[in-house]
Amino acid sequence: MPAKIRLPLIFVAIFWWGASHGAWAEIVAHDIRIGIHQDKTRFVLDLSAPVRFQIFALADPYRIVMDLPDIQWEVPPAAARRDGGLIAGLRYGQYQPGNARVVLDLKGPGIVVNSFIVPASDGQGPRVVLDIRKVSRQAFMKTLRAPPKQAVRPAAPPRRPKPKRQPTHKPLVMIDPGHGGVDPGAIGISGVFEKRVTLRMGRQIRKAITAMGRQRARLTRTRDTFIPLRQRVAMARAAGADLFISIHADSIANRNVRGGGIYTLSENASDKESAALAAKENRADLIAGLNLKGHDDEVTSILIVLTQRETMNYSAQFATELVPHLRKLIHMRRKPHRFAGFVVLKAPDVPSVLIELGYLSNRRDERMLTNPRSHAAIAAAIARAVNSYFAAQKS
Ligand SMILES: [Zn+2]
After folding, report:
1. What is the 3-class SS of 47-109, one letter each residue?
2. pLDDT digits (tens, 9 = 90+) for 18-59
3. DSSP letter assigned to residue 168
4. pLDDT tens for residues 254-304?
5. Spatial CA neighbour of 378 closest among 332, 333, 326
6. Strand partners, 35
7. Ligand 1 mean position, distance from CA 371 (Å)
8. How many angstroms separate the CA atoms of 314 and 326, rounded?
9. Taking the CB of the first residue and of the last residue of the chain, which one, N or C, has fewer CB atoms within 10 A?
10. Ligand 1 centre and the CA of 277: distance in Å?
């Protein structure tokens, strides 16, 4: 691990144009392009108006992050898959309110040697241009600056899980639509983003639970916005949630693989696939351009809390309840309940499960996951499982 280097960012570029153009939210991004030149890789963002932007770099893996004001993303679906030259992949979307972000994954150390805005001309709108040049690791590390302070709340002392409630108190279910904003999650065979599927599904589940009237339901996000994994956990704990359900849909190179699965927390993954999946989902913060250094200890200390074991048992009970309900609607994997170290399941005192609804890389699963009618049916099944879980706690 390289030593933390705190040097002023050499290539921060701040442009303040377009203040006269009115609300930032009205700025539309039309396309993202990558140009490969002999000595540089050029990144171009086509916009409807000039914007203020800021660039910084992150190491391990090498990334370049561009922060922008609110942007309406109307780029073609293929833009999310563009790469070339020094750029191995990219993501874009809202990072936090008032702040859009583009994250470029680099194939190796590279720095922005030039960044500028080309004003609109000849019927073409303005565009942001970044020229990236390959450098040594040493030169790259010199451009790093301390990341902006993340709003990670200190961990509250754990409570004992309390599924046995007064009859007047309706249990609270926190539903967590996976990914969001700058982190699209998996990308489907027809270009659908996991973050959209999970949000629509999450809303439906909230609706179904509320309609049943026996529990309350809340969402960790109601919009297309990025929320760090630990903050999702913190939200459930702060709200005093009695159950946490994270919603996801995976994607895999083999397009024949399909089926849903339910995961609960364990330090030891039940199999290699589950471990790989957890590692993939846990990358969400990294994908959004968050610097994760210094967070691991907190998680480790949360993990060893004694209440965790009891919480894990409750989580497993809910998973067991879910399987038969979901199996009626979703093609489930052969071993439907598995274990792995998902960060989002690490609340020591809130029973938590993560549902992978299926594979967006499989045509049949994708069709099911983008169909509003199956959303409603799956949501109703989850609501019934939630209800039987809490009913079992009372008896
Ligand atoms: Zn996911």
Report:
1. ECCCCCCEEEEECCCCEEEEEECCCEECCCHHHHHCCECCEEEEEEEEEECCEEEEEEEECCC
2. 333 444 448 999 999 999 999 999 999 999 999 999 999 998
3. T
4. 999 999 999 999 878 889 999 999 988 988 888 888 766 555 555 545 555
5. 326
6. 42
7. 18
8. 18
9. C
10. 9
Residues with CB under 5 Å of ion ligand 1 are: 178, 185, 248, 281
Q: How confident is the model at residue 160 (pLDDT cuts 50, 70, 90)?
A: low
CA of 304 to the centre of ligand 1 (A): 25
Say which residue the tokens 């073409």 belong to: 124
Q: What is the rounded CA–CA span in Å between residue 9 and residue 92? A: 22
Distance 246 CA to ligand 1 centre (A): 9
Residues found in the chain: 395
pLDDT higher than threshold 70 for residue 390:
yes
Distance CA 275, CA 346 (A): 15
Q: From ligand 1's centre to the CA of 390, what distance in Å?
A: 26
Cβ atoms 167, 159 nearer than 8 A: no
Determine the distance separating the centroid of ligand 1 and the alpha carbon of 247, expressed in angstroms: 7
Q: How far is the CA of 177 from the centre of ligand 1 (A)?
A: 9
382: left (phi over 0), alpha (psi -120 to 50) or beta: alpha
**265 strand-pairing partners:** 340
Contacts of residue 26, defined as CB under 8 A and 6 or more positions apart, other chains included, come to 48, 49, 72
Domains of the chain by range and CATH? Answer: 19-142 (2.60.40.3500), 172-394 (3.40.630.40)
- According to DSSP, residue 123 is labeled T
